[in-house]
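Weekend entry, working from home. Most of the wet-lab plans are on hold until the incubator is repaired, so I used the time to fold the two sequences that have been sitting in the queue since the last round of cloning. Logging both here for the record. First:
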Amino acid sequence: PVSIAGMLEENNLMERILSPEEQGRLIEASIGYLKPIISTALNTGMRRGEILGLKWSDVDMDAGLITVSQTNSKSKKQRKIFINRILRKELAELKLKSGGNEFVFLSDKGRRLKEVKNGFDAACRRAGIEGLRFHDLRHTAATRMIESGGSIVAVCKILGHSDIKTTMRYTHPESSVKEALENLANFDKITTNITTN
């Protein structure tokens, strides 16, 4: 029977979204060099490798754009991400501290960072946050973009996905679903008023 029916589909995707309160605790618990890295992940949805490989030549402060190069992208496709006001402030401060280094994110000793796992895990412990991976910051960013009214198409483009189905797994638009159903109730009130008048 199993050979006919085939294997059952397994849903083993880990999903973890930071609450706003957890996000504040994580940033507060992060040491100097780690804070802007976490902020960048939460404000762009960029992957860890994309963030750590980011060079100043990829950042256009005047146009307010970050270019994720083909060589630094998992999809091997270039994409552009707008810099919001929070990230603009972080990047301006980092530029002043860069000392001419080509990489944006440096250790406290001014060297290029290749890994942040130990620092990230330590920040999570200090913040009392369990079961969080760095990739979950990307998941959190995508979910917040959708829940604050961003379109799934825009989020797909920001994250650099070639298929919108991939983006769907990063999003949990519970509030927008609730709002859509509430809008039906509002429409019903309008219809009721028209028919009774």
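Second, folded right after the first finished:
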Amino acid sequence: MKNKSIAFTIALIFFTVSKARSQDVLFTQWEHIPLLYNPALTGNFEGMIRCRGAYRNQWASVLKENAYQTSTASAEYKLAANNYREINMGAMAMLDKAGDLDFRNKSFTISTSVIQPLGHPDSWHHLLAAGFNLGWTFSQIDLENAQWPGGMPPQDVNERTSYPDVSAGLLWQYASNSKFSFNLGAAMHHLNRPNVSFSDSSVYKLNNRFNLHGRIEIPLAQKISLIPSFLFSSQGPSEKLLLGFHSRWYPKSNNPSYMQIGFWAKTAKNQYGKGKPIYAATATVELKSLLIGFSFEHFQAIKSNAYEFFIGYTFKANDTKVSKQNN
């Protein structure tokens, strides 16, 4: 009976940890963290260098200090660009923390993409992009907070593990001479299906994650645009859909600075059925090269909330030239 109790406790702990890590984090304002969702989006911006930072806090009113918290930081650089093709590089670091076992994922990823315009150089409107990333994830749990029969964990359980991770993606984009544009992209993550088990005697393969995303900007007036977008994510038995829109205002029609608000709905289903929709509101301001964003969502089922904060800066071509001259 004692051996059965130990086995059940171990299985319960690793089932809980496996469920926590088998589904990747989903930010509401996913477009501000492009490297996390599709490596083909690497370098897809106007400028030379783009930096982004994001933080998400979820269910703090219920879990208190054990709330789900995710932080990311990324940078992208246009390595080579000419009239026919762009080659881009990017790097991203992410820290994901959750639960009373202090479960943590620390990941570091290097991305690259090739952007190929289509058509005649005088009238390029379409482009195709292909991206690839290679990363490494370090995971850990705090076994001191676990309740073990007999007071000691089994010998083959480790507090830390690590594994490589490989992803690839594609993107198709169209942009007119006005602000009308759209894109459609797809990516497959965890192509190598790494073993994420903390036990030396067991194997738990991380499920592939498939992302499909799209976005369209529709000018409604000289300074106002409507931007619907979606993100569909499928990983193992879980499926998530994020659907919504931004309403964007450009203070000056010939200036890329803007202010926008958005409204979103999230739906999810797994092997246990379909959950209730979750609704979110977002606000973003981009002033010249500085981006600041915020989102709020409410989980009615557990009477709790989630918050996201974003900040970023894009160095234009003129900025980098001035910096080199000053040096």
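Plan for Monday: verify the second prediction. The CA atoms of residues 78 and 223 lie 29 Å apart.
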